[in-house]
């Protein structure tokens, strides 16, 4: 995004309401979708705006449209976002960095995540507007996970908002560690930040555990693939065993059921054996659980879901934590719920009892959780694999390189507040470039992401090369 104004000579704009404008100019004008512009109206009035869309044909003038953010003060030091003036044949030119900064200052955008424009102007987000659900997407290799880490670090650094991260690929397990090979002062997060990392592998620090009795009865039934009506006898037997699984040594669960001697208890024992539930390492017994850690609201809690041997174990963790957050929603204790690779938990196609239960809980939080301080941040490579009832509740968008026409079409439809011309630029983004739009940014902004403060847990593995 250039700051040179001479090549924009001859470009003009007009507006009938002062809020949206049409522009025209010579085809060498240095405008593109997303360009911030200064509009010189009547009586020396200057307004700050942004180009949303452009059309160009060889031999024809450049034409486009955009929006106006407000009127620039006479001294150029502030922006009045409540004053709009219709104008005709106004001169229009690219805004410089200091003028664009008025918009960010007016919105109190304080969280710096990178830069935009050729002059590398700091790009800032509004921390207070993470009280809306956020959708983050980018194809493999776009830098999505690294960029998400940049934003999460800045939230930990500049806010008191607790974060819980569902991390299926161990990408955030080093969130508390300085970058590798960095000895400089000031790197990493401050030492007083409370970062808890719960690992699915017991040999790697704090264990990621849940207690069977932390789950509501419906979730316990889902864990054992029981339906309350179709499996009436076994389900009733389960209701009598609330204090068994998770509090007894797992090897004692089946014998205890066998001791009861009823057909339902025998059937339930066989089900537990067949599903290998007592072999799961996720059960805590008397040890501290993920639910109890999250209740204490550390600055960040990373739940490493990727190392379990059985595919239902990560779902049980998600179910336990989400259910507890929802059950305690009336406490109105804010928390940002980050679900990385969200298609694993939010897919419309998952049909196992646990997949359905987890998805329905996320749908409920998406629809009703915002007013209780339960705010989602969903990150995925494939937007089309997220249940539409979840993605439709998101007010913030972070879009990185995305080449799939189906996914881009869906994003443009769901996030109709984002100029379509900006969404269409996504396939040309380089690694680490992103479009931010929605309530957490003053205006749709194309950003080059900044550097991480902590070590990335899941960086790409290089191809081994032979030496000559």
Rg over C-alpha atoms, rounded to the nearest angstrom = 26 Å
Let me know the average pLDDT.
Answer: 89
β-strand percent reads 15-25%
The largest sheet, given as strand count, sense and whether it forms a barrel, is:
11 strands, mixed
Query: Which fold name is given in CATH as the topology of the largest domain?
Result: Rossmann fold
Which ranges are low-confidence, i.e. pLDDT below 50, for 5 or more consecutive residues? 1-7
Strand order of the largest sheet: 9-8-18-17-16-10-15-14-11-13-12
Share of helix, binned: 25-40%
How many domains make up the coordinates?
A: 3
The top-level CATH class of the largest domain is Alpha Beta
The helix count comes to 13
CATH architecture of the largest domain: 3-Layer(aba) Sandwich
Secondary structure: number of strands: 18
Annotated CATH homologous superfamily of the largest domain: P-loop containing nucleotide triphosphate hydrolases
Task: Name the structural class.
Answer: alpha/beta
- Outline, from the CA principal axes? elongated
């Amino acid at each position: 995004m250039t700051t040179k104004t001479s090549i924009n000579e001859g470009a003009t704009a007009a507006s009938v309401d002062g809020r949206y404008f049409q522009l025209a100019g010579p085809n060498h004008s240095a405008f593109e979708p997303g360009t911030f512009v200064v509009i010189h109206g009547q009586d020396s009035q200057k307004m700050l705006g942004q180009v949303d869309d452009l059309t160009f044909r060889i031999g024809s003038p450049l034409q486009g449209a955009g929006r106006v953010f407000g009127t620039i003060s006479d001294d150029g030091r502030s922006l009045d976002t409540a004053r709009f003036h219709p104008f005709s044949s106004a001169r229009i030119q690219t805004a410089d960095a200091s003028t664009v900064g008025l918009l960010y200052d007016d919105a109190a955008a304080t969280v710096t995540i990178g830069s935009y424009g050729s002059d590398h102007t700091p790009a800032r987000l509004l921390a207070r507007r993470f009280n809306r659900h956020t959708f983050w997407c980018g194809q493999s290799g776009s830098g999505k996970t690294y960029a998400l880490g940049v934003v999460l670090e800045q939230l930990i650094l500049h806010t008191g908002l607790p974060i819980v991260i569902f991390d299926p690929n161990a990408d955030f397990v080093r969130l508390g560690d300085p970058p590798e090979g960095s000895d400089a002062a000031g790197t990493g997060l401050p030492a007083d930040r409370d970062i808890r990392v719960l690992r699915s592998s017991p040999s790697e620090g704090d264990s990621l555990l849940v207690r069977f009795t932390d789950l509501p009865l419906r979730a316990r039934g889902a864990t054992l693939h029981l339906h309350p009506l179709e499996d009436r006898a076994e389900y009733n037997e389960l209701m009598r065993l609330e204090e068994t699984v998770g509090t007894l040594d797992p090897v004692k669960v089946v014998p205890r059921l066998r001791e009861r001697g009823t057909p339902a208890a025998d059937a339930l024992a066989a089900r537990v054996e067949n599903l290998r539930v007592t072999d799961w390492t996720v059960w805590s017994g008397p040890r501290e659980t993920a639910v109890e850690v999250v209740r204490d609201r550390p600055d960040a809690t990373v739940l490493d879901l990727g190392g379990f041997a059985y595919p239902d174990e990560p779902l049980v963790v998600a179910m336990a934590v989400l259910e507890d957050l929802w059950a305690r929603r009336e406490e109105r204790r804010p928390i940002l719920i980050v679900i990385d690779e969200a298609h694993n938990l939010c897919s419309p196609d998952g049909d196992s009892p646990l997949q359905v239960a987890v998805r329905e809980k996320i749908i409920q939080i998406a629809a009703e959780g915002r007013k209780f301080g339960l705010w989602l941040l969903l990150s995925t490579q494939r937007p089309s694999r997220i249940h539409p009832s979840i993605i439709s509740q998101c007010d913030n968008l972070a879009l990185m390189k995305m080449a799939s026409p189906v996914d881009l079409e869906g994003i443009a439809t769901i996030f109709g507040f984002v100029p379509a011309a900006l969404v269409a630029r996504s396939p040309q983004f380089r690694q680490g470039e992103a479009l931010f739009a929605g309530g957490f940014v003053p205006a749709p902004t194309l950003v080059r992401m900044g550097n991480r403060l902590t070590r990335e847990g899941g960086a790409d593995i290089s191809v081994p090369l032979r030496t000559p």
